[in-house]
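User: Sequence in, structure out. Go.
Assistant: Echoing your sequence, followed by the structure tokens.
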Amino acid sequence: MELISQSRTAPSAILLAIKKLLIRETVGLRIAVAYTTSSGADLLLKVMDEALGSRSTQIPREIVTSFDFMHTEPDALRKLRAAGFDVRISRTGAASFHPKVYVADHPRGSNLMIGSANLSRRAFTTNAEAAVALIDVDRAVADEHLAGFVSDAVPLDDALLQRYEAARANAPRPPSTLVTLPGEVLVEADGTDADSPIARIEFAGDLVPLRTALEAGVDPTAYQHFWVQCGTMSGGSRNQLELPRGAHRFFGHQMAHEQAHEVPAELTILANGRRFDDRKLAWHGNALENQMERLNLPTRSQGGYDYSSGTRVVLFVRDAEGYRLEVADEGSDLALAWRNASAASDRLFRVGRTERECGFF
């Protein structure tokens, strides 16, 4: 059993937990959630594609959700139906439909996550959420847990979706609000969108290089997450990440840098359900001059990611088996959530002499 807590200073914990449910051997996905949003559906489908590859479109998948309070977005239901989900709507009557259950079935049983997170971008990334993940539960237990939700729901068809969309369009929506707190600037939270954008937190003053922070006593081993803006990746496959000097400390290695022929460290990187035990971490060129380290990430063809756009952010998460690798676009809600978490705890830094940023949380 794993307890999962997501907060402003610990973002994307729910999304990472869902990815861990979806092992390569997954044979089915079942979900019961109160509300479903379009951007949440996008994230779920992306995670399924990353975790399951070509099998993501082949396994059975179903979702039970609700029209309660009209929070569910019609476009989300369309996306899930188009992606092959059996979409059902709960008949709750005077009661509210409020479960949040994610079940990934596999040959040995089921992996479950039960908690507070609806199927939305905010719930997956930045909302304060809590959950429990259970691995290799007896399939019969999962079936019994979901049976009541499924039996008390009706299949979503075109007529029902059109009726809901018309009713939602005519329903009054909450007014827009603007809330600011000391030391941050927030975008307007539009009440017409249950999944409003995430703002970048701005702090006055220049960022110090990570190396300077380490010399001042910052301990990278005290943090579970380390993220870096990629910038222009080097290497023929554009998979060589230039890390700030001292980044090796997060990975538990000691690198003297002054040794001209120092043997590179080999890290275990976990990405897209695969394990890479030979990822080399070494200093880059003359480390005394450029103050950089270099890590070879798994390429797209190897089962990793595409980092070549120059606007990507990579996140390393400590795991019992190694370091889980996640990738997001700069400016995306996910990348901003990571940055905001570091900024909120004063652990936001510059990468060497560049304009790139990195941070711990």
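User: And one key feature?
Assistant: Residues 9 and 23 are 27 Å apart (CA to CA).
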